User: What shape does this take?
Amino acid sequence: MSVGTSVLGSLQIGYHTGNVNAPAKIIEQFFNNTWRSRHNQSMPDQSLTFLWSLSVSIKDFGALLGSLGVKYLADSYGRRNSILIVNALSVAGASLMFLSKASESFEVLIMGRLVFGLFCGLVMSLNPLYIQEVSPTNLRGAFATLNQVSFASGIFIGMVVGLETVLGTEQYWALMLSLSLIPALLQYLVLPLCPESPRYLLINQGKESQAEAALLRLRGSLDKVYTELEEMKDEAAHTQTGVTIHEFFRKRSYRQPIIIVLFVNLGSQLSGFNAIINYSTKMFQARFDEAKFLTLGVGAVNVIFTLVAFFLMERAGRRRLLLTGFISIAVCNLLMTIVDSVLHLVPDLRSLQVLVVFCLISMYELGPGPISWFIAAELFDQPSRPIAMAFTSMLNWGGKFFLALLFPPLLKACSAYVYLLFMAVALAAFTFTWIRLPETKGRTFDDIAEEFRGAEGIPLHDKPRFNTFS
Assistant: This one.
């Protein structure tokens, strides 16, 4: 119940990622009509293109800004309460988007996307943080993957609802943008009934009795509660009470985890997935009459393989899934380059291109997609975890924003060879993951943190106790 309710936030984010693709032309027409009513002339095409690009990408920019508030909220108000607080940004953003049509103002729509973006940056860090701290060790990765499952499901729902045959019409597009209010309000009703993170209560607040009560509700067994309480007390004994941002980047035992998070997250965001998600409709429109249904196929594959990752996460482990994902993405990008280069000579290869796109999406969601969002919560100790999650959010949303901004000019400049750049990023992420990332499956937070505390000056893959290759 706690995990399922918290991921309603990522469902909202996915919904607003997927719902603007299909009705783009209709919303652009709204921009043009608004401009004409003010200035008695149509908006120049270049200005319209810029305004639409701004409307789409400003959500990611807002998310980048929102990431900066994660530490303050998580440490001041707790993990659960912070999710409830930032949910107000989602309600405000969706309301503004809904009101944009009635007010005949595209500025209101853009402002709504910006406010919603602040929510995105905060909740995509707070969710994994809360989920990791309430989950039992043996299910921690699988439960954290549900955040990505919910996000991918939201993208697919947004794609479906945005179709012209559903709500992506001139009459109903504003209503379509407001539907995220339903999960937002549901979260306000249910999440207050869920317990706060026991780790936050004990390690951050020193409230042992409240932490024990929260654990009892989450585990239902006194034996499990006492065992976990002892583990948390051991972790508290090894950590300082608080970590500043300056200390986070200066402390030697955090250096290796920071570099790992940097490579895994940038490798995930800059390996081509986001370019295909953002521009799949335009890519398919050039070669298929029913491009929107192929785009729905992308969304469906996205959901299916996040579910596959959920079931494999505690069996295969984080490391193996990341390595499989990155090397497969590199191969898919190489194939995309080859197919795109010869497509004008062999048009029948367009079906192969669709297959390669589906393979790239599936391999991303098998490992890099879900793991990049929660791996930082496993690699850092309790005081530094909120900063680590904020750092993760900044890398992820920053990567999305810059790729959305740079992909069109890169595609124009490099043509099919742009996918070789993505291949190089995926190979770099694969190599670094192979050399440096330990397996965190089934290990307690204190056990993982202890390895980094003892790894100062020692290469992680050479340290006998470090479970890197198991």
